[in-house]
Design brief:
Elements (H helix, E strand, L loop, with lengths): L31 H6 L5 H13 L8
Amino acid sequence: MQDSPSKRPDTPCVAVCSTTFDDVCRGCGRTVAEVANWVFMSAEEKDKVWVRILAEGYPRRNS
């Protein structure tokens, strides 16, 4: 996954949406609130989410 904000996709969504038993998507690593509010978040807020999910090994794409 790209580390530079300018090279990142617009969203970490990988179309593997699943939040069973918790509030974190197993595909992209975002919380339900982050997914719902993504389009309203500032670039700085999105960058903080990207940094966290990349450190946690997300987004996860099935190969």
